Every structure is written in C-alpha cells, then in structure tokens.
Amino acid sequence: MTTTILALDLGSQLGWALTGRDGLINGGSENFRPQRFEGGGFRYLRFKRWLTEIKQCADGIDLVVYEEVRNHKGVDAAHIYGGFMAHLTAWCEHHQIPYQGVPVGTIKKHVTGKGNAGKEEVIAAMRSRGFSPDCDNEADALALLDWAMAQGGVACV
Question: Which GO terms describe its molecular function (predicted)?
Fold first, then answer.
C-alpha cells in the first residue's frame, strides 16, 4: 500500500502536492488571502477546512511535510507563515498525523543540486520530472513531496 503524503508550501498562496493511495500525484495551489469582509483569522479557518477536505478526499493522510522557512521577506510574511504553521501542526496533532518541517535549502538541493536555487530552477527541475506546475508554490510543494518520497515517506525527526 502506498503512503499518502501531503506536502505544503505554506503561505497565502499555498502550494500543495499529494500522493494518493493509488500512487498518483496531484498538486496545485490554493488562495488563502483574506476575502472582503473577513476578519484576520478567517484565512486560517478556511485553511483548516481545506486540510480536512483533502484528508477526506485522500481517504486519510499518513504524513504531512511542509517547507520550513527561516528567512522571511518581511514581518507580515513571517506572521502569516507562523499562523499557517501553528494551525497545521495543531491540526496534525488533533488528527494524529505525523508532520515534519523541511528546510528550504534541503528541498532545493534535492531537486536541483543547489541549496540556493531560484524559483525558475525549481520549476524547471519539477518539469524535468514530468510535472507541470502552474506556479512556483506548486513547484515547491512537488519538490518537497519528491524529497519526502525519496526518504521513504516517513518522518525523519
């Protein structure tokens, strides 16, 4: 049986990739920017609902991996990332799903050979593996999923 892994590039424009129990890989991006008339925390409520929908559609998730960002472009980006990470890890704990953050440089080095590769290099690397990412967020999630699968689909904490 194939391990179901959900890989996430956390942010307002969230990239995701998922291995199904059938071995197929799906991916995309979801917009969690605040909508008109929403309070500041509503994006996280929509994120948690989305996670639950993904879990139900996948018939369960065995592992969640997320891009562990240590350097943000600004204070707002850091706060938003922290909110997504807090909600993700709490959701995983609630559903008893193992989770692991993976440093950005580790992911980039895995798919491009360079830990400081640019967005276009990651997109090109994922295209060379047969994927068609629509944006850099989806490409990052696919790269992270590729890394997790190379580790055997188990948390390496």
Answer: nucleic acid binding
